Amino acid sequence: MHFDSAHLTALAAILRHGSFDMAATHLGVTPSAVSQRIRALEERAGTALIVRGQPCIATGAGARLARHAENIRLLESSVLEQMAPDSMQAGELPMVRLAVNADSLATWLVPALASARGAIWDLVVDDQDHAADWLRRGEVSAAVSSHAGPVPGCDSMSLGSLRYIATASPAFVARWFSDGLTPEAAAAAPLMMFNGKDRLQHRWISEVTGHRLSPPAHRIASTHAFVDAALAGLGWCMNPESLVQTHLDSGALVALRPEAPLDVPLFWQASRLMTNVLTPLNRAVRDAAAGKLK
Q1: pLDDT given for residue 220 in this prediction
Q2: pLDDT interval class at 86 (50, 70, 90)
Q3: Which of 55, 140, 152, 179 lies at a C-alpha separation of 20 to 30 Å from 134?
């Protein structure tokens, strides 16, 4: 089935900007023209593609077509970049969707995104243990994942390991672990979780105590807020070493078991179909990880 490129471009513009009016402004046409293109595209696809609202969102079929449209733009921009490197304008850049974990985003990934040219990044933040699921569903072009084996249709590259340290404030340790990190104390002391998928704290506490425990847990979906909460004595948590080293050196935080860090191996999984156009990003990710990961 063939889809008109102008219709696909209109779909992608609506989902990128959130409304028909904003898409029309971006494309330099009237809102009526955008509506006509979407209507024609929906008739061609035989299904609804957009849920009208504030903002407009895609149906399942609309999301798949929009990704197809963005992939076409990415391939076209790659050719243009090779032919005329300085001709691309920011408004013309294709959008590339990536699945990344919050801790990588907070510690080492942003410089890679800044140095890779030729795209606008749309980041889906998810746990590294689940990032590969986005690739399997075809919803992203690449992902930072904890799974070494390549997702079907993707290449996998080892990045190194992100080191975590179990940390808490001195006052928290004095209150909850005055007799050491015993299974009884660990079962009672509040910990922090990013969300329901986050198992780092439970994994570490099982390794160091030899017991499967379910302590009370605060849910805080922010890497930097994890550090702030630990400093405030709200609970203990696994923090990336690079984010807390200064606090450990000053004594504002203490490591619960300095001899037992948790190293989480990370891998970059990228769509094989998009290898040529993702090469600058793949290289930038590899170089950024080499300078920050173990």
Answers
A1: 96
A2: low
A3: 55
Higher-confidence residue: 94 or 192? 192
Q: What is the pLDDT of residue 94?
A: 73
263 three-class SS: strand
Which residues are within 8 A (CB) of 169 and not within 5 positions of it... i.e. 6 or more apart? 230, 231, 232, 233, 252, 253, 254
Distance CA 209, CA 183 (A): 6
Q: For domain 1-90, is the CATH number 3.40.640.10?
A: no
Claim: this prediction has a pTM higher than 0.70: yes
Q: How confident is the model at residue 273 (pLDDT cuts 50, 70, 90)?
A: confident
Q: How confident is the model at residue 76 (pLDDT cuts 50, 70, 90)?
A: low
Of 172, 129, 133, 121, nearest in space to 147 by CA: 129
| Residue 166 to residue 227: CA distance in whole angstroms | 11
Q: CB neighbours of 208 closer than 8 A, spacing ≥ 6?
A: 166, 181, 257, 260
CA nearest to 102, candidates 214, 16, 15, 192: 192
What is the CA angle 262-263-267, rounded to 5? 145
Q: How far is CA 192 from CA 90, 170, 218, 222, in A?
A: 39, 16, 5, 11
Average of per-residue pLDDT across 207-231: 96
Domain 162-262 CATH (choose: 3.40.47.10, 3.40.190.10, 2.115.10.20, 3.90.1580.10): 3.40.190.10
Domain locations along the chain: 1-90, 162-262
Three-state SS at 16? helix
Given a contact cutoff of 8 angstroms between Cβ atoms, the answer to whether 144 and 104 are in contact is: yes
Closest CA to 186 of 197, 178, 196, 177: 177
